[in-house]
Amino acid sequence: MGRYCFMIALLLFTAAMQISCTDEEPAFVTPTGVTRNAVVEIISSSSDYRWWLNGTAVSYATDAGEASEGEVSMIDWPSASAVLAVDEAAGSVWCFRCGYAPQSFSGTLTFSVLAVQDKTDAGTAEEDMHDRMLFFSTAGKLSGKSASVNLMPVTAGLKIMIYDSGYSSVGETVRKVTFTADGDEILTGNIEADLLTGKTGVVSDGGSVVEAATDGVLTVGHGTENASGVGIVIFPQASLAGKISVETDRGVYEFAVDVPSGLSAGTVEEILLDMSEPLVHPLRRVGILGDSISTFSGYIASGYGPYYPKGDVSTVKDTYWYKLIYDKMPHATLDVNSSYAGTRVTTDPKYPGYDFVSRCLDFKDPDVIIIHGGTNDSNNGVILGSYDYDSDIESLNPDYFRQAYIKLIRIIRDKYEGANIICVIGDRLGSGYASSIMEIAGHFGLPCVNFQNDGENIPKVSGSHPTAAGFDYMAGKIYSEAEEYLQ
Asked: How remote is the C-alpha of 138 from its chain's centroid?
């Protein structure tokens, strides 16, 4: 009787073990009732890239019908090991590095290359590819409690690095990067791997577009040393050509890509994208903040006083800012022209509420803001005052030229974050005003175009107001000296 009860208890205990097994706790209860740990050494056939890290899960299966995951520990890169809970009946073990845990095993496994591949949070391009690159092995034979398997790559990768050699898109947030193949190349889809032979099957549900969603963790930096990017996993290709589109919070940039040598399994092609040299560029929206020199009737805010048209400046196309935006810049349009004849950077009782500081929030969504002011301050002998870079914005005195100009820059930078500010010094400014603008621009790291000694190149309609020829010269010099901020 006692022996009979013991057998019943043993059966109940075994059933309880079977019920309690979960994917998180891989313990395989077989008819033998025995589970063992096997130490498996994993060696990659690609020594150029590390496709696993300490603590990364490695999927595995055995010929006993098991499929689960183990945790990787590095040995001596590119080798790693994992302790796996395998059935005593198992004689072979297959390992996979693909960020995918097989739920069943029948001699073949289906791996998927996703058409949408999210960028890891604040991760690198290598980390993006790390969890998605597909590797699998032929069977490693278990000998006692150890086995060795060789991982073979199934997929390839594109390491897309984004930077700006100029300043037109520096600081923009990248929302997504999309690669579209020109032809019928299959970049994504599902592929079956035969574990016994190591052969892969035909790709099914394939597509030629891969998208990397960045979730706002990538911003455009200046120069190749500050390039950052995303990694995209695709199937190997004999040759590869297509287009990459980079969508930022400012617009969409497009680039042509050609990899004539193609991509073999396990390799990665690094692609550098200079945001200053795209095939397609979003329009740069340019704001103008000025006095009479920058006006033209019908192109400034209603109620603002114009000076032009005057003399041979008969159409808006004769002005320096129109020539700059539509003739010189490759992809640009006017945002808002906030110019008012007679106004100063500083406050002026003749134009209350229309000084540069008061008007600098007129813009809608500028990428570039050009400030051409100070002539009326200089003509009226406004007090220069002191340089004050440390006080609160509200504490800066707009009656003094230097503090008003500093206040102007700080308000614009706070309101229109990421916009490039270009300071222009007119040829009729007194030396103290010109040097003040140069000092302030230098402090904030802003480009400054100085026309102080260019009077003979800028003929006038009257007073300080240039002719069409003078405007043409001005547009050319502004573009040549600030080109990297205007692309």
From this structure: 39
